[in-house]
Batch of 2 targets.
Target 1
Amino acid sequence: MLRAWRDALVHLFYPTLCFGCNNDLIHQDQLLCIECIGALGYTQFENIRNNPVEKLFWGRVNVQFATSTFYYLEKTPLQRIVHHIKYRKEPELGRHMGELMGMKLSSLFKEQEMTLCIPMPLHPKREYERGYNQASLLCEGIFKTTGLAYNENVLVRNEHTKTQTKKSRKERWENVASIFEVVDHQAISHKNIVLVDDVITTGASSEACAHALLEHGAKTVGICSLAFTA
Ligand SMILES: [Zn+2]
């Protein structure tokens, strides 16, 4: 009884707000309200061969599968959730979204015999400013619901980010490809790797990472992201 009163008082002064819509949450330990959970646009791409994310990589890199759990649409709870994870230092929300991804991905991972998750590396300066790599948080959540281990020390992103505009298509590709480097070959050798990203738009970074992993000994690579800009 006393505890209920105390919780009610705390809630009055420090209301917990939904990350999707900013409305007051009834339970302190929730991150999203019922309406926002219901409004999350699941793609169900994990059950669809030749889905739009896989098609992005056709003729570019040979991946085992590619999928995104949610549609990334303007002015939706998901867009606000991604914004919170990327710019508002909300690591718990990142882990939670990873858990939701894991629930959708576990049978695909089993079917494809995936053995390790690798987060898309962030520019070191950006990771320092943000305090974390959001893709690593997603991996943590995925691990919690699927049991699939992750390693954030395999793939690194190099510092240089030269301007792309005056380069030819080939030079641009070489520039992107040289950004990602595999620093632990042993860890991926003969393994089926899942590359984990936050939002896939053109797929250029995922493509470069998948190439790097395959060139350095990974047996197969699958790609999954939290969201897809359709
Ligand atoms: Zn909400």
Target 2
Amino acid sequence: MNTRTQEVMHEFYHGLLINDGRRFRNWGSSRSTQPAVYVEPVSYADVQAVVRDTGQFPTPVRPVGSMLSVTETILNDGGTLLCTRKLDAIIGLETDEQGRQLVRVQAGCRLKKLNLWLQQQGWEIPFQAEIGEATVGSVAVGDTKESSLDGPGYFSSHVTAVLYIDENGSLRILSDRQDGDAFYEFKCSFGLSGIVVECVIEVRRASLCRANVTLQAFDSPQALTDGVLKLREECDALLAVVVLHQLACFAEQRYRADAGNVTPGSSQPACEQYRIAKRLAIQHGFDGGSLPQPQGIVFSRHDFVNEYWRPAETEHRLDFQYYEHDIGMLEQVIAESYRFTKAFEQKTGFTPTGWATYFVHRPERKLKPYGIYSGGAGISCSFDPIYCNPNEPLWQQFAREYNRLAIDTLGGNPSPIQTQWLQPGDVRIPRKLARSRFTTPYYQQFLV
Ligand SMILES: Cc1cc2nc3c(=O)[nH]c(=O)nc-3n(C[C@H](O)[C@H](O)[C@H](O)COP(=O)(O)OP(=O)(O)OC[C@H]3O[C@@H](n4cnc5c(N)ncnc54)[C@H](O)[C@@H]3O)c2cc1C
């Protein structure tokens, strides 16, 4: 597509349209919304028609992908919920003038589908988080975290161009080469600046990962912090799940292995056993049960991008909070969080099932001007409480109260799509990024 703006002459909408007042729920059934209209466009022209027709498609228009998000980000009562699931084509590989290898993909494509396709071609995106259902459009303009090998650890850093529908219904393109600041700001916009319909993402030759998995116990919060930092220093990327009230740490130490796109036979079936056990633990919100601790397994990380079934409300299922801290804060974060957790346990008997700990490399400020990872070059860590039932009142109380410690006292940055029960001021989104056609009351409260 060479033109920077493409107008479409017809205004007819062809995709699925539901306006019978039904409710739509997120993955964990902890949030639901009753839009006036729910649409699944089948073309970019459909998205344009929806945005332009304020009569048939009431304001605000909120784009969603797989509706996995745990927060109120998907809420749009009385508005138009636009789901991108049918815009999920992988258009193909291409090379740009700078010689970068890229993949062009539609916004509704799920990360698992993209990973499988790239695996077949011998390419990969460095961001290979466990979550396979998240859609490209959501993670191109939203917050993500992953302990990546040789990569920053958040998806949008790999996006080099976006095609989106603006508030007038025009198709627009922004890219790092031509638009600089405007492009980097758009990637911090959570769909408030426009609806992403297509992304261009930088890829690299597929590589293998070697991992050692251990479960270790410590005798103090300080020893736990030292242990986590040592585990991280020993490897190329660390994913840790800390059982804080027991001062234990489940650690997956990742090391670069050679080039390749399939798990070698020498590491099977150990890899598959570990993958299935870890996937189940994540699906069930780490509700107990032991995990294998394989040593020296070599695998393609494509295979570890998982698909999670949509759980029934009676099933244990993952719920979590997200906070970004600078790595220099980890000691204080663990010490204060331990104190808080033990006091809460004494008061109520409740503890989270685990704390996910990711390490992400922040870029220079220009490349990530707002929100998480915008602190300038450095290393961030997250320390995120996890539970196995989003609707458990004590978990909700824990998370609400912990927000004040993590955000106010420890200075953590929360995310409007990954941190629940936020208050105005907890997240600050520049007003200039938000168009009224796309701004729901949930996002309105964070505009500054
Ligand atoms: C079981 C499970 C595991 C998870 N694991 C991880 C993990 O390892 N790492 C991680 O980072 N996250 C993880 N998450 C969180 C998840 O990746 C994010 O919430 C992600 O945004 C979900 O993608 P989605 O397509 O479901 O987005 P949705 O929930 O459908 O949408 C979220 C928001 O994205 C924006 N949006 C969606 N589509 C578009 C578009 N086309 N254009 C513009 N804006 C858009 C809107 O603001 C929307 O409200 C996990 C969640 C679950 C439930």
